């Protein structure tokens, strides 16, 4: 689940405008905590009675439901919610030539970020 953090952060960044992005991240963080709490309580109650395998099966059910919902989610345009790119997107819509955000992370950019005091 922790391996999905970069993916969900990127998706939330493309789904929410900057003005409400913190709310989206907060909801995600709260639900992750609630899921952990419910999973541990469920494993503590169900595991001793039905064996250690059953809690894993029960925990997989909401995960499968979430996976189905994620597959139904439309892929957002990369960077379309960034305020700094709104003028570029607007002009591309008016010209009929769609703007495609193609920025990628490179090691040079990583070094630049870590060099900031």
From TrEMBL:
* Xref: InterPro entries: MFS (IPR011701), MFS_dom (IPR020846), MFS_Efflux_Transporters (IPR050189), MFS_trans_sf (IPR036259)
Q: Which UniProt keywords are listed?
A: Cell membrane, Membrane, Transmembrane, Transmembrane helix
Pfam family membership, one? MFS_1
Q: Does the keyword Transmembrane apply?
A: yes
GO CC annotation, single: plasma membrane
Question: Topology with regard to the membrane?
Answer: Multi-pass membrane protein
Query: Which segments of the protein form a coiled coil according to its record?
Result: none
Q: Name one GO molecular function term.
A: transmembrane transporter activity
Q: Where is the Major facilitator superfamily (MFS) profile domain?
A: 1-117
Would the keyword Transmembrane helix be found if you checked this record's keyword annotation? yes
Annotated compartments: Cell membrane
- Which branch of life, at top level? Eukaryota
> Which spans are transmembrane here?
25-46, 52-71
**Under which name does UniProt file this protein?**
Major facilitator superfamily (MFS) profile domain-containing protein
What is the species listed in this Swiss-Prot or TrEMBL entry? Eutreptiella gymnastica
């Amino acid at each position: 689940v922790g391996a999905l953090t970069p993916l969900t952060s990127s998706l939330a960044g493309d789904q929410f405008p900057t003005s409400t992005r913190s709310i989206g991240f907060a909801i995600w963080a709260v639900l992750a905590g609630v899921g952990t709490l419910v999973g541990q309580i469920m494993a503590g109650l169900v595991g001793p009675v039905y064996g250690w395998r059953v809690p894993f099966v029960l925990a997989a059910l909401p995960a499968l439901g979430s996976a189905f919902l994620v597959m139904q989610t439309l892929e957002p345009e990369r960077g379309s919610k960034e305020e700094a790119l709104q003028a570029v997107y607007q002009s591309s819509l008016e010209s009929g030539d769609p703007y495609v955000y193609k920025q990628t992370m490179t090691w040079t950019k990583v070094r630049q970020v870590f060099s900031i005091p």
